[in-house]
Amino acid sequence: MPQRNGLLKELIASFLIASGIAWLTRVLLWRDRTAILLYHDPDPDTLDRHLTYLRTICDLVPLDALAQSSAGRPRAIITLDDGHAGNAALLPIFLKHKVRPTIFLCSRIVGRRRTHWWLHPWAEQAGIERLKRLLNSQRLNELHVGGFSQDGDDQATGLSLEQIEAMQPFVDFQSHTRFHPILTRCDIRECANEITDSKREVAALAKGACVHFSYPNGNYGAREIEFVKAAGYKTARTCDVGWNDSRTDPFRLRTIIITDDASPSWFAAQLTGIPLFLRYLRGGGWAGRFPQF
């Protein structure tokens, strides 16, 4: 099945490129806007190929430059969610391409012997997507049955303190909550603490200002936006598909999710936003909105 899916992706990518749709999307939709690309844990060679291609079609800018004028050219911002340990190996690629990415950290997972909850063996056995839909307390109870405790020592899957320190001069570290819960499945206290406390903790970890936020799993609503504003963040990135300009709500920044192992042709196809838009449509999300629980 994976081989079949891979072939289908390449066929779709070939069509989007050969038909001119990929080029037309860049001209009509991307144009002078900014695409915020979302990765998680890509390998260095794949990211190197992606950035090599990106530099031929757009300007690469840091997240802090989002509000600045684009000078009429398409722009892209590189972001990575979760703070995976593998991100440390990407530093030479960032330096090679003169890119300053933003890595959104889970502040109580990185720098400790802790596991991102969905990477725990029990989570896969219990069903990761099913667990996401549970109330946060229910999810934690089920994971506890399988031997997982979000406050307990386990296998380290996040960046270490030493890695964060080494990367800090070249990377912007920002907030992705403390433990990566689904915020819309948290009670009021849990939601507020995850958003507010992570801001302070990330600032301490990275020894710099924490002013940008990323909603875990792309789930958010009016309550979450209000908490982000009240905590003093300047922006929040969603998983809603699209490009950003001066009219974009800074607390609902749109993104283009990139598959960590995307081939060059599938990467070019994903930059159109079309595969993601169709995936959301099948899941019940309209107008490019990430399907909410």
Blueprint of the fold:
Layout: H1 2-18, H2 21-30, E1 34-39, H3 44-57, E2 59-60, E3 75-82, H4 91-96, E4 102-105, H5 121-126, H6 128-133, H7 136-145, H8 161-167, E5 172-175, H9 188-206, E6 212-214, H10 222-231, E7 235-241, E8 253-257, H11 264-270, H12 274-282
Helix pairs in contact: 1-11, 9-10
Describe the protein:
The protein has 293 residues and is of the alpha/beta class. The protein has two domains: 2-112 and 156-282, Glycoside hydrolase/deacetylase (TIM Barrel); 115-151, no CATH class. It is 41% helix and 13% strand. It has twelve helices and eight strands. The chain has helices at residues 2-18, 21-30, 44-57, 91-96, 121-126, 128-133, 136-145, 161-167, 188-206, 222-231, 264-270, 274-282, and strands at residues 34-39, 59-60, 75-82, 102-105, 172-175, 212-214, 235-241, 253-257. Strands 1, 2, 3, 4, 5, 6, 7 and 8 form an eight-stranded parallel β-sheet that branches. β3, α4 (91-96) and β4 (102-105) form a beta-alpha-beta unit. α1 packs across α11. The protein is globular, with a radius of gyration of 19 Å. The protein starts with a helix and ends in an 11-residue tail after the last helix. The model has no long low-confidence stretch (mean pLDDT 96). Its main location: secreted. One of its GO terms (biological process) is carbohydrate metabolic process.
